[in-house]
Design a protein that fits this description.
With 298 residues, the protein is of the alpha/beta class. The protein has seven helices and 13 strands. The strands form two sheets. Strands 1, 2, 3, 4, 6, 7, 8, 9, 10, 11 and 12 form an eleven-stranded mixed β-sheet that branches. Strands 5-13 form a two-stranded antiparallel ribbon.
């Protein structure tokens, strides 16, 4: 059975200020997602599922489908506040979805096979998709997840702070813990993060998750259970976020195993408008090296 690629494209894009998921960055107007899908097809994925918002579904489909329809199976799911919430009603002042782990949960009716999860607006590199596909075929099973790990220093933006799942790994390459740090940035020769207790340094050689996770289909049951616990504990907080690293950390604490699979791929992405020129430059460079054709889908 071929694995599935689940693309998180329902984000509000609040910091970037536009629908960056369908903005063209490649020389032929390709989106960052186009490169991810292209790499996934090459790596042997059989289906792509998009998590999107209903209010831009038609626009999204009109842009995506003419390029990839017939190349890979396509499905869509919608992330809404009450999806899989067990009847829980969100606070009236909350308008944005519950976060990335909830987005994954919203795909449980569309995915019955091992699957990888990525962000729509991150470029992961072909090596990462081949590593993910291999992990899904040979490592992932009930009780075992994996993540593709990147060097923290290679994942920062020069234009502001970013959110990263910082990993602690044992000598066997298994995660000991993963913690989402929501404000990481360079400060001179250091990498630091801010939280309510102040500014803290992060080791320069830290491995981080860029939300490229690999799961068995049984993970949906685990995510559902943890989501209900999350709502009981933090559901009244209008700004609470149910991040994927919460799932990984809880899974480990309950005796599960998460393997960190390092990749040599270079990550880049668009968190801020100012990141866009660098992304375009990087894509042109990869095309010039022959890693991608100038027109992906021609």
């Amino acid at each position: 059975m071929k694995p599935t690629l689940l693309i998180l494209a329902a984000g509000m894009a609040s910091r970037y200020g536009s629908m960056k998921q369908i903005q063209g960055f490649g020389p032929g107007g390709e989106t960052i997602m186009d490169y991810s899908i292209y790499d996934a097809i090459r790596a042997g994925f059989g289906k792509v599922v998009f998590i999107i918002r209903r209010d831009f579904a038609e626009n999204f489909k009109n842009i995506v489908e003419p390029k990839i329809k017939g190349r890979i199976e396509i499905d869509y799911v919608y992330q809404e506040l009450d999806s899989f919430a067990g009847g829980y009603k969100a606070p009236a002042e909350r308008t944005k979805p519950w976060g990335t782990a909830h987005a994954v949960l919203c795909a449980r009716t569309a995915i019955k096979e091992p699957f990888a999860v990525i962000n729509a607006d991150d470029f992961y590199g072909s090596d990462a998709f081949f590593k993910a596909a291999d992990s899904l075929r040979h490592e992932i099973r009930d009780g075992v997840f994996s993540i593709i790990g990147y060097d923290l220093a290679k994942t920062l933006s020069e234009n502001g702070s970013v959110s990263r799942g910082v990993c602690e790994v044992d000598k066997e390459g298994n995660l000991v813990s993963i913690v989402e740090r929501t404000k990481i940035y360079r400060e001179g020769s250091r990498i630091v993060y801010d939280d309510a207790d102040g500014i803290h340094e992060v080791p320069f050689d830290s491995k981080v998750s860029m939300n490229l996770w690999c799961f068995p289909a049984s993970a949906f049951d685990i995510i559902q259970r943890i989501f209900i616990d999350f709502l009981k504990e933090k559901g009244t907080d209008a700004k609470a976020e149910f991040f994927i690293p919460i799932i990984g950390d809880r899974f480990i604490k309950e005796g599960g195993k998460v393997k960190l699979v390092p990749t040599t791929a270079q990550w880049f992405g668009v968190t801020y408008k100012e990141d866009a020129p660098e992304v375009k430059k990087n894509l042109r460079y990869l095309v010039s090296k022959g890693e991608y054709p100038e027109r992906l889908w021609s």
